[in-house]
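Dear colleague,

Following up on yesterday's call, I've attached the two folding results inline so they're easy to grep. Please treat them as preliminary; we haven't cross-checked anything against experimental data yet. The first protein's sequence and structure tokens come first.
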Amino acid sequence: MELLSPRVGVEKSPENVENNTALGRLVSAYPRARYLPLTRHPITTQRSIQAHLNRTLPGHRQNGQPTSGIAAWFETHRRILRYAATLPSDRYRRVRAEEVLNDPRPQLAAIATWLELPADPPAIEAMMHPETSPFASFGPAGSGIIGGNDPDFLRDPKPRSVEVLETLDEPAGWSETPSVWQMVVDLASHLGYP
């Protein structure tokens, strides 16, 4: 952080919220950090997880899917909300990915303002062009760095609008227990999904 000053460091690894220990370490290591969790509809999240698994493990059966992916979505967001409840309100802001991707300029301006970063039109315009970032590409050949979970984005790193599901109806075969899906629906509703 000292090397970056006066810039602000951003850490976005999903692994930071996979368990209480990892999130607790993050909170302890960065006591003044601000948290900006990005939520996504549970159904489109699971579809994305499935596409990632199919891409990275082609031909292999993914035991427990889609139930385990939905359970991970639920546990992750529940864990984030528990930690958020312990933070001062000025250090936590939740954003729905669908809103940022489908109406980016005002959403990015609001986030930048909250982070005390420039939110003027040139700053927002720069944010609209992630393809100019040195990180918006695959890692160098032979480096062992593969570069993110979404090779489709890395092939053409430009913002795209996304589907907005207007329902939380459970897709056929996704859960064996209605009470499990109801927990997902309750949490998704709390996060602002219809």
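Below is the second protein, in the same order (sequence, then structure):
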Amino acid sequence: MLLTTVLIPLFQIASLLYVLLPLRMSRPARGQNELFRALTRLRPWAMPEVFMLGALVALVKLAALAQVIPGIALFSYGALMLTLAGLTSITPTEQFWQWAEGRQT
């Protein structure tokens, strides 16, 4: 649970920052190709949307048995889910390889 809810999203954000910020300044980061390949292989395993859906279903089911108050963690994870979805949508794999080759489109 720790791996899929915390560590993989942390790795995704950190690796995208490590790879994309130097590309923005027109200088490649060391090991960017290998890191981006690992990131594209890891993306299917990082599914915060599925975890959030499961958490919401569990909250609804538990609400029948006890008083459930969603806290800051649920809203924070929702924000993380939206952030990762946004990062994934603005960094398509083909676009990265074009940037890495130096063809700015």
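For the second protein, one point worth flagging: The radius of gyration is 17 Å.

Best wishes,
A.L.
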